[in-house]
Every structure is written in structure tokens, then in C-alpha cells.
Amino acid sequence: MQHLRWVTVTVVCLVPSALQGQWWAAGDLLNEELGKETHGTLAVSLEFRSRLEQRQGQAFGADPDRSVDLLRTRVGLAWKPVSWLKIAGKLQDSRGPMYGANAPNNVRDPVDLHEAYVEIRPDANRGFGLSVGRRMLNYGDGRLLGVPDWGNTARTFDHARVWWLAGKAHLEVLVVSAPKVRPDEFNRPGLGDRVWGTYNILPEIKGGHKAEVYILRHDQNGPGGFTGQGTLGVTSFGSRWTGPVAAGWKYVIEGVVQRGHVGPASQRAGAWSSVFQKSIGKVDLSGEYKFASGTENPADRGRSGTFDQMYAANHDKFGHQDLFGWRNMHDVRAVASWKVRPRVTLNAMYDSYWLARKRDALYGLNGRAIAKSTDGTAGRHVGQDVDFFAAWRPVKPLLLGAGVGVFVNGEFVKNTTPGVAPVYFYVFQTYSF
Predict the structure, then answer these.
(1) What's the confidence (pLDDT) of residue 390?
(2) Where residue 222 falls among pLDDT bands split at 50, 70, 90?
(3) What pLDDT does residue 21 have?
(4) With 90 as the cut, is the pLDDT of residue 248 above it?
(5) Residue 22 has pLDDT above 80, yes or no
(6) Radius of gyration from C-alpha coordinates of the chain
(7) Integer Cα distance of 12 and 4 in angstroms
(8) 10 in helix, strand or coil?
(9) Model confidence at 238, in pLDDT bands (50, 70, 90)?
């Protein structure tokens, strides 16, 4: 009878709204009715996203061109039996029908558990809080810990977090690990590869300046994987600052220093990101410079200087094509976003890339090497990326968009790869509530 009751509530919400041409409000109406039936303790969420994309010049010509449709569905349920307790879960189904039989785990993962967590928060504004389970998490800009949601399977974290709120200060201790996506079985925890430490948000400083400081340890117990040999133990000391500059400009600056070991080699690395942005009428402008260190002499097995990007959410941070990661890289970029109408936005993005160290590799989105010049004679300039994309939200839960990205090969790419310049085109739609 209880199941029948929920089916009835769903039909009552969806059918009339569809008949009245208000399909976009179906999710709000459903949650409104559920709230009435459960005294505000239960809520559901739904996301359906489809994207058709065409990629030419994959891996700069080393991989075949590919056209694929990416489908992702998420269904979630959140229950708050009391004000201080939240229990939530979410299923995710990811598929790429046009890819073929051997779709990799960043394309395909049929129905799997994407979130299942418990959150205890006696007071939303101060005091103790706790979160345990599997959950999507983002810290800062996601440059070290975040969810690359553009990916079809995205990322989630098995985690435990404890925090303390005092005024505008947020002090947190955490341990997170990203389960490996297994397309044909349940995504099991992989706690042997984990990040743990503390991430803290400090009270606002006079003038509107805000700071976040963190100490994060990336451990990997097993050989192979990210490091290629031995184990990994890298500690990152970092800080992120935001605030106003002058004449309407704002800044976001983040710096990280790393110490530890990568296999048998000692790790001494660092990274930097600085963004300056301003709104002029309906146009948002930003300029950015990013750096991540590389290894001076990879043949020296006793030293590693290649930055460990941990669980980075790199989408859009190195061009819309998602070709590169935050390792051994200089990147200069400019972005302009024009709000043509309240629900229509046009965007243009330009990036230019150089290797930080000529004898270290060029690294991809996932941190793995794409190409390398052992003697450092292939040059340093990687290339340039130009992207144009648009988004339109005709109604609240629906987002439509399309984009194109064109890469212009630099000296290094021409000398170390087949030299085919990547081109990326896509159209997408997302419905969510």
C-alpha cells in the first residue's frame, strides 16, 4: 500500500503538469507533495543528461576519431527524520551506446551506487558536524579535490569528514578515496589510494578577503597505478585566497607546495594558480595563469618534481577539450562570457600552454603521460586551444548547450606525436530537479 501511495503521488504531480504544459515544474510539484505527505522529511532528485560529441585528432592522432552519444541518469532520495540528521542516496546510470562494445569506464557504468551517506549537523551555523559514506565533494575550485561532473561517469568519494563551525570559520578533518569505476560490477572502495588531512576556511579579513588553508596527504599503498613503481606518499601544503583588487576586479589565488616521496624518489614540487576577473555590463572577463612543476631530469631516479594533482576536477581549467592535467605545465588563458539574455550565455576561451620542464612529459587530464622528449630537444611550446560554447536555459530545470574547440599544435606536439590537431564538437541537454 505504501508503494502504491508514492506511485499515486507521482502520477498526481506529473500528469496534470504535463497536460497543462507545465512539465518543467513536475519535479517541484512532486517534492511539494512528498513534503506534505512526509511532513517535510523526504525529497527526491532527478538528473537526465545526454551529450552527442565528436572528437577528431584524439591523442594528437594516436587514437582514432570518435563520435559518441553519452547518456547519464541520476535518481536520488534524501531523508531528514529530524533537523540534525540527513540520510541520502543516489543511483547513477552512465552509457555510451554509439561507442561500441569496449566502452571504457569513463564512458560506461550501468546502474551503480553513486552516493550513500549520513550527515549529522546539530546546528547548521555553528558547532560540530559529521559526514560519512559515499558522496560527491568539492573543495575550493576543485583543483586538488573535486568532481569533474562533465565526465559521463564523474567521480564520487568514499569519505569521512568531521568539522567545527565557529562564526565564519570552518575547521575540518577529512579522509577521502575515489572508488574505481567498474563497468560490469559494483564500484568497490579503494582505500589504498586516499587523501587525508585538514581543510579549513578562515574568517573574512577586513576588505572582503577570504582565505582557505589546507594540509593534505596523498597515500598510495600498492605498487603501480599512478606512480608506476613503489608507493606514493605526498603531503600538500596549500592556501587559496579570494577578494577584491581595485576598479571592480577580483582575484582568486591558490598556491601549493609538496613534499614526500613518489616510489623511491623524494618529492619536491609545487603549483600556482592566479585568476583576475571583472564584470563589465553583461560581459564577465577573466585572465588566468597556472603553473605546475615538472621533473628537471627524469633519469635521476632519486628526485621527483612533477606535481601530484591528486583528485583534480580539471574540466574547463585547461581548455574545453580536456586535453591536459595540472602537471609540468604553464598555462595562460583568457575567458569572456556574455549574457546575451537572462537565460542565454555565449562564451569564448583561449589557452596557450608550455611545458615547465622540457625533459618531463606532457600529461593528460587524468595525470598520465601523453608524450615525452627524453633529451629535451622537442621544444617547450605545447600549443593553443580556442573554444566557443553557448548555453540556454529555456525553463528552470532544462539546460541546452553546444560548443566547439580547436587546438593549434605547438612545437612540442609536432615533434613528439603524430601531430594531428584535436577538434571537439558537442551538443547537450540536461534536465534536473
Answers:
(1) 97
(2) low
(3) 53
(4) yes
(5) no
(6) 23
(7) 12
(8) helix
(9) very high
Q: How far is CA 267 from the centre of its chain?
A: 25
CA distances from 227 to 119, 220, 230, 234, 367 (A): 34, 9, 7, 11, 10
The closest alpha carbon to 402, from 413, 393, 390, 394, belongs to 390
The predicted structure's pLDDT at residue 162: 98
Cα gap 430→53, rounded to integer Å: 15
d(CA 167, CA 249): 27
User: For 34-93, what is each residue's pLDDT tens digit?
Assistant: 888 888 899 999 999 999 999 999 999 998 999 999 999 999 999 999 999 999 999 999
CB atoms under 10 Å from CB of 187, counted, come to 21
Calculate the alpha carbon distances from 74 to 24, 198, 309, 339 in Å.
Answer: 17, 30, 27, 29
Burial class (CB in 10 A: 0-12, 13-18, 19+), 257: middle
Q: Which long-range contacts (CB under 8 A, 24 or more apart) does 128-132 make?
A: 128/162, 128/163, 128/164, 129/161, 129/162, 129/163, 129/164, 129/165, 130/161, 130/162, 130/163, 131/159, 131/160, 131/161, 132/159, 132/160, 132/161
Q: Give the three cell numbers for residue 194.
A: 586516499
Crossing angle of the two packed helices 26-37 and 2-19, in degrees rounded to 10: 150
Rounded to whole angstroms, the Cα distance separating 250 from 254 reads 14
Buried b (16+ CB within 10 A) or exposed e, 370-389: bbbbeebebbbbbbbbbbeb
230-250: burial string, b at 16+ Cβ within 10 Å, e else: ebbbbbbebbbbbeeeeeeeb
Question: 61 φ, ψ to 5°?
Answer: 100, -10
Does the pLDDT at position 6 exceed 60?
A: no
Q: List all residues 6 or more positions away from 126 whose beta carbon is below 8 Å from its beta carbon.
A: 165, 166, 167
- What one-letter code names the amino acid at 393? R
pTM (2 decimals)?
Answer: 0.89
DSSP string across 194-238: EEEEEEEEPPPBTTTBEEEEEEEEEEE-SSSTTTSSS-EEEEEEE
